[in-house]
Amino acid sequence: MTMKLQDTRLLAARLSEVKTYGHFINGEWTEGHSGETIELSNPATRQTLAYIQSGDAVDVDRAVNAAHHAFPRWSKSSPAQRQTILRVIADRLRARQLDYAMMETLNNGKTITEAFTHDITGAIGLFEYYAGAAFQLHGQVADFADSTMLIHREPIGVVAQIIPWNFPLLMAAWKLGPALTTGCTVVLKVAEETPLSALRLAELCQEAGLPNGVLNLLTGFGEPCGAPLAAHAMVDKVAFTGSTEVGKLIVKAASNDLKKVTLELGGKSPNIILDDADMDLAIPGAANAIFFNHGQCCCAGSRLFVQEKKYDQVVEGVTQFAKNIRLGPGLDSRTQMGPLVSQTQLERVSGYLRSGEEQGAKALCGGKRHGENGYFVEPTVLVDTSPDMKVYREEIFGPVVTAIPFKSVDDDLLTRANDTTYGLAAGIYTRDMARAHRIANRLRAGTVWINCYNIFDAALPFGGYKQSGWGREMGHNALDNYLETKSICASI
Fold this sequence. Notes:
Blueprint: H1 5-15, E1 19-21, E2 23-25, E3 28-30, E4 37-41, E5 48-53, H2 57-75, H3 79-95, H4 97-108, H5 112-133, E6 140-144, E7 147-155, E8 158-162, H6 168-181, E9 185-189, H7 196-207, E10 215-218, H8 222-231, E11 237-241, H9 244-254, E12 260-264, E13 270-273, H10 279-291, E14 303-307, H11 308-324, H12 343-358, E15 362-365, E16 380-383, H13 390-393, E17 400-406, H14 411-418, E18 425-429, H15 433-442, E19 447-450, E20 469-470, E21 483-491
Parallel strand pairs: 1-5, 8-9, 8-11, 9-10, 11-12, 13-14, 13-18, 14-17, 16-17, 18-19
Antiparallel strand pairs: 2-3, 4-5, 6-7, 7-21, 12-20, 15-16
């Protein structure tokens, strides 16, 4: 990342002005119906950043109506028009990459380097990828006797998209890219904790030429804003990323009129290190698998299975890695891990740490809050855990890993690795690629990384088995989430 210290100071000063943001509906900023607002704070300092609207069912109805009225025209726009707009979005986002990285850091807490190189770069790549996909939405033609069969692909309609707070801009791009390139119109409900970058993105999309009503953005809490959006009669499809618990509520809300639903939900991902692994690769890989983005990652490698011969070496290495992580505000260039996103998340992770201690888990490092100002938790390595412990079974969504030894690669290891209600991701470290692929084929997970972890690409589908979700994000597969298939049979 090419960035000077004075650049961050100037941008921070400019972004530090406390504003009140409205909803973005039909191309305009508007106040919420209730008149109530939500305070946003910097998770590193707890200082007020801004205020946003607390949306309700009236705001939802206005946004959905705007999307509904914009759909006929946008759905008939040419692939060239949609491609051009998506490319302009990517170009303008690249030109303002540092601004958006600063917003992510101030609002979410992640380091400026991570925000710049992962989140914003990834979002740019998503819009570029789906710009290219605009011309790939092909139907099919088949001839049978005296009939011609036409298979059309058509945009599904008005889409409600609800995204989480851990990767605010990137999650918006994951959702918007395929929806816009297929010709759908969108009501995007952003997380109430981290809406700033998405709010600016809505404005940028308008500047790039997106017609009024194609993208509408709402802010607010889940129950008064997200729930009526998922249940709205004029919404044709719901796409949600977040916890499995809330995902189940989304399904119920959408079930009344059988809306199509895609879900990208939680995980408790196994990361497996075999005794022949390259330890110079596996140890930092295992550490980054859990400590990336403060552990606030649905696919985090939170269950670390290590073959017994190398268990002590790996645990010692990951523990030392964790001890050396420098915690601090994300704008500090020396910081390697920022705070958790909110007081609520701090209490959640702290509760799991207490539970682990009470149930007999041992913390080799970390295990408690760091400092008094901000929502910091120490990177934590837990050992002596068992499958009946909450820290072993449940998604913590923080920088906490449980290390578990195993003897041999057999049915027992695979049973233990798959013994979870989730199935989002997994990792394998070994020099034996044949064995790696045999294990990968038996892991019940949507993504399996071999000798790496947290590798993402716009062309690579991402999603889970079991209670980790329905459908896939990214890649060509994600286009299917936003398309209907129509068969036309003509007698000739």
